[in-house]
């Protein structure tokens, strides 16, 4: 029931106007844009009945052939991903690489490593909704892997 409520809240967040850039500093944002990825915070709010937790919804737009740099997620972050358009190729931890198509969803456990997250198409854009349930004090949602 709780997860269903989060999914509904995330779906509503997509309809809300986008806020300023997603979490991270300007250097991280610039590096991401150089790889064909743009991240925009769509919704961010403390969860009133779960003290210390927040819900953060991000829209990740991938240009054709675009990708996210390899990264690790915050140790507190449970992530729900939903492909809004196009196809996203993803690898989490030691799982095999998978392609998710528009309308398909996946989750990532707290502290997951995300070595592959990219547009599966070299000719069409793709869009992903990433919803984080995270400790409110975690201001850095992803850390690049060097």
Q: Could you please describe the fold and organization of this structure?
A:
This protein has 146 residues and is of the alpha+beta class. The protein has a single domain, classed as Jelly Rolls (Sandwich), CATH 2.60.120. The protein contains 2 helices and 11 strands. Strands 1-2-10-4-7 form a 5-stranded antiparallel β-sheet. A 3-stranded antiparallel β-sheet has the order 8-3-11, with no helix packed on it. Strand 1 and strand 2 form a beta hairpin. The longest helix has 14 residues, at 2-15. The protein is globular. The chain starts with a helix and ends with a strand.
Strand order of the largest sheet: 1-2-10-4-7
Largest sheet at a glance?
5 strands, antiparallel
Bulk shape: globular
Q: What count of domains describes the coordinates?
A: 1
Radius of gyration: 14 Å
Straight-line N-to-C gap:
38 Å
Which percent band covers the strand fraction?
A: 35-45%
Task: Spell out the helices and strands N to C.
Answer: HHEEEEEEEEEEE
Q: Give the overall pLDDT as a whole number.
A: 82
How would you describe this structure in keywords?
globular, single chain, alpha+beta, disordered N terminus, 3-stranded antiparallel sheet, 5-stranded antiparallel sheet, 16% helix, Jelly Rolls, 146 residues
């Amino acid at each position: 029931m709780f997860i269903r409520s989060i999914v509904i809240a995330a779906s509503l967040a997509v309809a809300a106007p986008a806020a300023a850039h997603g979490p991270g500093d300007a250097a991280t944002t610039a590096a991401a844009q150089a790889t064909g990825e743009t991240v925009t915070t769509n919704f961010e709010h403390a969860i009133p009945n779960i003290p210390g937790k927040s819900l953060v919804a991000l829209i990740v737009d991938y240009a054709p052939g675009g990708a996210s740099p390899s990264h690790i997620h915050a140790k507190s972050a449970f992530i729900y991903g939903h492909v809004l358009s196009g196809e996203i190729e993803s690898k989490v931890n030691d799982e095999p690489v998978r392609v998710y198509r528009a309308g398909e969803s996946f989750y990532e456990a707290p502290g997951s490593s995300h070595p592959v997250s990219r547009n599966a198409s070299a000719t069409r854009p793709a869009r992903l909704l990433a919803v984080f349930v995270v400790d409110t004090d975690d201001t850095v949602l992803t850390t690049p892997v060097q």
